[in-house]
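Morning!

This is the sequence you dropped in the shared folder:
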Amino acid sequence: MKKAISQLLGGNMLSKVLGLIREVLMAKFFGTGDINGAYRIAQTGTLVPINFMTSDSLNSAFIPLYKKYLTENEFRASTFKLCMFMFFAVISLLLFFVLFFLSDYWVGIMAPGINGNAREMTNELFKIMAICCPFYLCSGLINYISMAHGDYKPMSMRASIQNVGMLLGVVAAYYYNNYLLLAWGFTGSYIVFSFWAVIRAKKGNILNLPERFEMAEVKQVMHSFWITLRPLLLLPLILQGNITLERALASLLSIDVVSGLDYARFITDTVTFILSVPIAFAGLPVWSSQSPEVVREKVTTIYNWLALLSMNMSFFIFVYARDIVVLLFMRGQFNEHSVTVTTDIIQGMCIGLWAQVIGYIFIKALSAHLNNKQVLIVMIVALLSNALVNLATYKIWGAFGLGIGNSIYGLVMFVCSAWYLKIAKDLIPAALKIVPGLMIYTLLLLALGNVITEPGNVMVRLLVNGTLFVMFSLLWAMLFPMYREGIKGIFIKKGLR
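The structure's back. Tokens below.
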């Protein structure tokens, strides 16, 4: 599992570096104006129906079942694999035709607040991005098959290859003054990735199909898959519906909020991808073969350390959100208004960011034992809470309200999934150790804010504040034996090396 986490973490880090370069250039060249807004809407509109098929619900149902077949009956596993490829091929072609020929109708649903030039640009970008549907879905299925066979490389490289393509698209669109190249960068990346994934999978002999076709076997595997997936089928519908609603509300506020939402999400998603995604995806195949008691013990141990990291990171990003946005994005077309909008969204998201990071792992722990009805209940309650808060606050708090809705989603997911895992009481001690430290640091900031003059340069200011906060967090954690022994162990190992 450690190897898998390292592989996924390495891929995520590379992806985020490339993504950061892409977002910085996107902000400089296009700001938060019509081109950027149209591009974000078209991309989201393409990914919403695609992600319905490649969502966490599907991999949570597919991977444990496929892995079970691999250990019990190899013919059944290969039959299941063939059925899924046929299913994905039909769905991907259907999605392409719907998105390509009904793009204008879909734009009206995704972004009712835009019109004129922005709507026309979105429609054109949509048609190009629709081409990626078969390639995206095919490579997604290969990713899941590879992970079931213990190969996490395709999963770790997917986002990096996507970001390379999108980065090239951003540069080409600006250099040639042709915004359509933004869409071709996205589509081209998945064409390249799908071919690479197929070649790698064939070399690993994991795409072997059954030598014969037995209808009875097909019925059995698809029936089992349907029984496993059925409780989760509503989940991707609500999830993608929530994303559509969020994007639509952002467009009603302004085109700047549409773009600001993605800049903010890039920063908060980076925390999730670095801290929780590697653990969750590496743990899913391992936890499925362990008893619930062992899984609960392991997840609680992970929580104790992840809470320390995620709560502190969420707090730091909330307090210094404006400086982070200015440092990363404020250049070229990204003006003061863009900074304000993006900062508001980030601060709203950071209130529950830590809970989303941890809750994501809890959900995967539930899925590992096929507790899909419980996962469905948790996610539905969390997503509906998100949607209701967004609808209630977007007119009052604007961009900040959209961020708050995202936090509510994380908090509800965290609490409900912990309750179903029967570890809720075990989570309280770690929180009681961490939160007082953050409260004391806040009081210190308030007390010394008018006394200490901070550096004028934003990079220096963030470095100074970041160093002070890390030192304070480490010293505070060292007050407690649980963290003190672990931190000392890390430094001892480093010293031995």
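Headline: The mean pLDDT is 84.

More detail when I'm at my desk.
O.
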